[in-house]
């Protein structure tokens, strides 16, 4: 361990068992890898650190990237740029595009995939792809190891567990192919503000039939409605031009303005949805 100030101590674990022992024995310890999220709102000349820090950068298991026929797997300390370096043809396109729009190259070279999702913030760049692609997280506490679906991890029912001492060690994403994948980030590039939001539209087409669809929008809240997804399932593609206004009318009944944090986000959502539907004609 290295003493930074009389109030801040960094613990460096070099293997997983040691990491779990530190989690068990040191109260209020803060796990950190890239530390970009932790430093994000610090604007003073002096950087303020937690009393106890667990440095995850010396754990080789957290740096591993692998791919099988069934899934992609990323160690939680893999940086965002290391994932981009794999190329858009080698990872799910929606994940690639979401990471590409996070901050800038310098930040992405430090920020880790585990850190990006750990806070369960809908505004985090990879939040929607992780949810839409049915990602699972390997969660390690001082005592246990468990695989948790990302959908469960971000749920309010899991909030109390997110306050406990733990690390995300691996992220696993099913290796599935979607026919079309559209992701965009709304708001000031590289910055999270009141206008920031994300839109994700995935469809699977089999024999000209829309067999699966997932539509997500996230600002300060997550917006998804499976009723709308089911509305389109089973339709023959391409859609006719006349179908789009009918679908949009139904969408405005399902996705009401009250669900959106602003009129701007409401308008963006409808415009993006309409554009994607016309792209299916």
What do you see in this structure?
With 281 residues, this protein is an alpha+beta fold. The chain has 3 domains: 9-55; 60-174, Uridine Diphospho-n-acetylenolpyruvylglucosamine Reductase, domain 3, CATH 3.30.465; 180-279, CO dehydrogenase flavoprotein, C-terminal domain (Enolase-like, domain 1). It is built from 12 helices and 13 strands. It has helices spanning 16-25, 36-39, 80-84, 93-100, 105-108, 113-118, 127-132, 150-153, 159-162, 226-232, 243-254, 263-278; strands spanning 2-5, 8-12, 29-32, 52-55, 65-67, 71-75, 136-140, 145-149, 167-174, 180-186, 197-206, 209-218, 222-223. The protein has a 5-stranded antiparallel beta sheet. A hairpin with a 2-residue loop joins strand 1 (2-5) and strand 2. Helix 10 (226-232) packs antiparallel against helix 11. It is globular. The termini are far apart.
């Amino acid at each position: 361990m290295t003493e930074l100030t009389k109030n801040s101590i960094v613990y460096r674990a070099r293997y997983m068992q040691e990491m779990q022992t530190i989690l068990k024995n040191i109260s209020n310890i803060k796990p950190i890898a890239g530390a970009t999220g932790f430093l994000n709102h610090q604007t003073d000349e002096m950087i303020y650190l937690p009393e106890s820090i667990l440095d995850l950068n010396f754990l080789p298991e957290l740096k591993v990237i692998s791919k099988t026929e069934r899934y992609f797997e990323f160690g939680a300390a893999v940086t965002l740029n290391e994932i981009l370096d794999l190329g858009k043809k080698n990872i799910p396109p929606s994940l690639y595009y979401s990471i590409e729009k996070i901050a800038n190259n310098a930040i992405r070279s430090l920020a880790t995939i585990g850190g990006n999702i750990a806070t369960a913030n809908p505004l985090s760049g990879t939040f929607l792809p992780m949810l839409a692609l049915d990602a699972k997280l390997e969660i390690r506490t001082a005592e246990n190891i468990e695989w948790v679906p990302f959908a469960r991890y971000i749920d309010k029912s899991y909030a109390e567990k997110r306050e406990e001492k733990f690390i995300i060690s691996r992220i696993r994403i099913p290796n599935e192919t979607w026919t079309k994948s559209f992701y965009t980030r709304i708001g000031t590039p590289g910055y999270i503000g009141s206008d920031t939001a994300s839109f994700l539209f995935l469809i699977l087409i089999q024999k000209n039939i829309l067999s699966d669809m997932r539509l997500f929008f996230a600002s300060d809240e997550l917006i998804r409605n499976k009723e709308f997804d089911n509305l389109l399932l089973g339709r023959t593609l391409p859609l006719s031009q006349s179908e789009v206004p009918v679908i949009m009318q139904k969408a405005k009944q399902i996705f009401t303005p009250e669900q959106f944090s602003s009129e701007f986000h409401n308008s963006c959502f409808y415009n993006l949805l309409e554009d994607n539907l016309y792209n299916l004609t």
